[in-house]
Amino acid sequence: MNPLLDKLQAYPFERLRQLFAGVTPNPSYRHISLGLGEPKHPTPALVRSAMIEAIEATPSGLSSYPATAGDALLRQACSEWLARRYQLQLDPANQILPVLGSREALFALTQVVINPGLGAPGAAPLVISPNPFYQIYEGAALLAGAEPYFVASDPARNFGPNWDVVPHAVWARTQLLFVCSPGNPTGAVMPLSEWQQLFDLSDRHGFVIASDECYSEIYFQDEPPLGGLQAAAMLGRSDFKNLIALTSLSKRSNSPGMRSGFVAGDAALIKPFLLYRTYHGSAMSPVVQAASIAAWRDEAHVLENRALYRQKFAEVTPLLAQVLQVRLPDAGFYLWADVGGDDQRFARELYAAYNVTVLPGSFLGREFEGHNPGKGRVRLALVADTSECLEAAHRICDFVKSRAAAVSK
Ligand SMILES: Cc1ncc(COP(=O)(O)O)c(C=O)c1O
User: Best of 11, 99, 250, 251 to mutate for ligand 1, by most ligand atoms within 8 A of CB?
Assistant: First the structure.
């Protein structure tokens, strides 16, 4: 067996299951989960009908093997979306590749980028990840034979990592850096000045930047979040050297079950990535391609979806802010709340007393250099409809107030 498998950490939801083991939630309440970050708004009709049409067309979309590079029409639709959203001109022939959602692409790209042979004994190549983070970054790094290196998100910097604290010797060993903007769980959007800093470091040390942008279309500010490719173009880096952006329809178009996204950026990275994917066998089904073309071409459903989230966050956030330290994020569909104490205990007791699931922040962060920046916080995924999220928020208010009352007795 591959010994690197032993290095993988339990997934946050497995740890949550263990945390809740033996707890019987209060039966007077039906269960509400704010734990899992899975979109719950309905998949748009235009996406569903495009998929059905592709199955029923003659010959059926299922009767032939798809190409790993995807249909030219799909890559064209992705390129046109990048042009509308970010005013970018990318060549669909060699700067864009469809992927089966960003999760598998984050993992697979890491296997392509990392050269485990480059590290001297005891000095494995490094993969830099924000902390807290999406756990695939760490697993992908470990299975590629690299070591993860974590940079803590800093509440004083709108939860951005402070890249200045990373030692020179660490940058020198770094082969890949993950950016998550808008961030999971913090919702923070990385500003242009930080992109400039990371591009300079990448030029100096030769590492690749993988920009995970799957929450880019759910935002609460007037300005849409800055994308990595957009930042590069603004800084005159028209070849997107050493940069790949990953995006997805899962959140934008409420279709996580479709498994559809794309990567775009440096043609010198896209080429070996396509080669790798050909062997791995990750071509997208033609019916998913047809539905994806329809989704990327339409913005009306994205606007509607964003409006739903905006309404929901506008109602829920002030309620929770009465009892927790929490504020509207830049983007994404999470609240990242400071519970003023032990986050795991908070989650367990809330579940027991009010049958609401939230994810302890310490499960999303890693203890690194003596500090887990997720500690003391919980992640609340506002994915269910507004009434359910409001009901959960009211229960959380009652829970926090009853705890405070018990302490003051
Ligand atoms: C930060 C982040 N990146 C990537 C993904 C993967 O999404 P998908 O594979 O559905 O595109 C998720 C899913 O929750 C996520 O939170």
Answer: 250
Q: Ligand 1, atom 14: nearest CA belongs to which residue?
A: 37
141-158 pLDDT, tens digit each = 999 999 999 999 999 999
CA–CA separation, 267 and 273 (whole Å): 10
Is pTM beyond 0.90 here? yes
Distance 119 CA to ligand 1 centre (A): 29
The Cα 384–Cα 395 span in angstroms is 15
Count of alpha carbons within 13 angstroms of residue 5, beta-carbon side: 3
Q: Reduce the DSSP state of residue 328 to 3 states and report it.
A: coil
Q: Which two tokens stand for residue 55?
A: 């199955």
> Which residues make Cβ contacts (< 8 Å) with residue 233, sequence separation at least 6?
86, 87, 88, 240
**Residue type for 170, please?**
V
The mean predicted confidence, pLDDT, of the chain is 95
How far apart are the CA of 141 and the centre of ligand 1, in A? 16
| Amino acid in position 206 | G
DSSP letter string, 82-145 = HHHHH-----TTTSEEEESSHHHHHHHHHHHH--GGGSPTT---EEEEEES--THHHHHHHHTT
The 10s digit of each residue's pLDDT in 85-125 is 999 999 999 999 999 999 999 999 999 999 988 666 678 99
57: CB partners within 8 A, 6+ apart: none
